[in-house]
Design goal:
There is one protein chain. The protein has 296 residues and is mainly alpha-helical. 70% of the residues lie in helices and 2% in strands. A two-stranded antiparallel ribbon has the order 1-2. It is globular.
C-alpha cells in the first residue's frame, strides 16, 4: 500500500510539471497549445541518449541541456506559429507533436525507433543515488523540482512579465497598442512552458528506465490540457488539483491491475466527457482563476 502511494505521488509530480507548463502557456498567456507531449518526449529522449552514451554527463549538466533543448524546440514551434490564434494554433501545435513522434519512430540510429531506448541508468545528486528502486528518495527528488518550478512561476506571475502575459491573454490588440511586443512575450512563455515539460520528460525517463515514442502521443497532450481546464485556467494550485484528479482516474486502475478489465478507449471518452461537462456547468474550473490583489 505504501509503495502504491509513493508511486502515485511520483506520477502526480511528473504530470504536475506538465500541467504547470501548460498552465503558463494556455492559462496565463491564452495560447491553446496541444504539444506538451512533444516537449516531454524531447526531454525524455535527450536524457536517454545522454545517460546511455559512453560518456554520461552529471545531473547538473543534464538538467541544463534538457532545459536548453526544451526551450530551443519551444522557440522553433513558437516563432512560426504564434502569429496564429485559437483553433489554428491548436492545429499547428498538434502537427508539431505528430512530427516529433514520427521523427522518434523513424530516426532509429539515435532513438531506437519503435523499440525506443532501454536500460537508462540512475543519476546521482551528490552522494545520493536517485534510483527508481528507492521510491521515497525519487518522490522527494521529483517534488523538489515541482516546488522550485512552482515558486518560480508564482514569482513570474507577480512580475512585469507576468502582468504582460495577462494583458495579452485578456486583449492582445490592446496590449500591442500599449507598446508590448506580444510576439516576443508569447514566444518566451512558450519556451518556458516547453522547458518545464522537458524536465518532466527527464524525470519520466530516469524513473521508467526506458522511453518509447508511443508514450508521447496526442492523448497525453489532451490529458494535460484536461488537468489545467479541470482545475482552473491561470491558477497554478488549481492545476495541481486537476492533475491529482486526472492521475487518480487514469493511473490508479493501471497500477492496481484493473486496466485489463477496462477498455483502452475509456480514458479518451472520460477526458472528453470531463471537458464537455466543465464547459457547460463550470467553465472556470474547480477552483477558477485567482482574483488579482490589485483589483480586490
Amino acid at each position: 500500500m505504501i509503495s502504491l502511494v509513493l508511486l502515485i505521488g511520483i506520477y502526480f509530480g511528473i504530470y504536475a510539471l506538465l500541467a504547470l507548463g501548460q498552465n503558463l502557456i494556455t492559462g496565463m498567456t491564452g495560447l491553446l497549445s496541444l504539444c506538451q507531449a512533444a516537449f516531454m518526449a524531447i526531454g525524455a529522449y535527450t536524457t536517454a541518449i545522454i545517460l546511455t552514451s559512453h560518456h554520461p554527463l552529471p545531473l547538473a549538466e543534464l538538467i541544463v541541456i534538457v532545459v536548453f533543448m526544451g526551450s530551443l524546440f519551444g522557440a522553433m514551434i513558437g516563432l512560426p506559429t504564434l502569429r496564429l490564434k485559437g483553433d489554428y494554433l491548436a492545429i499547428a501545435s498538434l502537427g508539431f507533436g505528430e512530427i516529433v513522434k514520427n521523427v522518434l519512430l523513424n530516426a532509429d540510429k539515435f532513438t531506437g525507433g519503435p523499440m525506443g531506448i532501454t536500460h537508462i541508468p540512475s543519476v546521482q545528486l551528490g552522494r545520493i543515488l536517485i534510483s527508481p528502486y528507492d521510491k521515497s528518495v525519487y518522490l522527494i527528488f521529483v517534488w523538489g523540482f515541482v516546488g522550485v518550478i512552482l515558486w518560480g512561476l508564482f514569482r513570474l506571475q507577480r512580475s512585469r512579465f507576468g502582468r504582460a502575459l495577462e494583458a495579452i491573454r485578456e486583449d492582445e490588440v490592446a496590449a500591442s497598442s500599449l507598446g508590448l511586443n506580444t510576439t516576443l512575450y508569447k514566444v518566451v512563455a512558450f519556451m518556458i512552458g516547453a522547458a518545464i515539460s522537458a524536465l518532466a520528460g527527464m524525470l519520466w525517463a530516469i524513473y521508467n528506465g526506458s522511453v518509447i515514442p508511443q508514450s508521447f502521443d496526442f492523448m497525453l497532450s489532451i490529458m494535460v490540457l484536461c488537468m489545467v481546464v479541470l482545475g482552473g485556467l491561470g491558477n497554478y494550485f488549481a492545476a495541481l488539483v486537476g492533475t491529482m484528479v486526472i492521475v487518480i482516474i487514469s493511473e490508479l486502475p493501471r497500477l492496481l491491475g484493473f486496466s485489463v478489465l477496462i477498455p483502452a478507449q475509456l480514458d479518451q471518452i472520460l477526458f472528453g466527457l470531463i471537458l464537455v461537462i466543465l464547459m457547460i456547468y463550470r467553465p472556470e474550473g474547480l477552483l477558477g482563476r485567482p482574483v488579482s490583489k490589485r483589483n480586490s
